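Aim 2 progress update. The chain analyzed this quarter is reproduced below.
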Amino acid sequence: MDIRDFKVFLEPDSEYGGYVAVCPSIQGCYSQGKTVDEALANIREAIELCLEEMENRGEEVPNPNNVLIGSVVIAK
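Predicted structure tokens:
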């Protein structure tokens, strides 16, 4: 079994009343949920579906280790 650790970003969405989840390794792969747990479960499903579709089309599966997470502090 091949295990891949895809990074995801979660952001509160006040209009929706929950969270938006994005997987930066896979273009267009995003989901949402009313809670953090629901958003994470939904983005997991979205990632699995995107990977399955990519494999079916013979596309190269992105390397999840190519995403770096950093922080930029701005002082005003």
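The domain at 9-66 is CATH 3.30.160.250 (Double Stranded RNA Binding Domain). The helical segments are 36-56. These observations will guide the mutagenesis experiments scheduled for the next reporting period.
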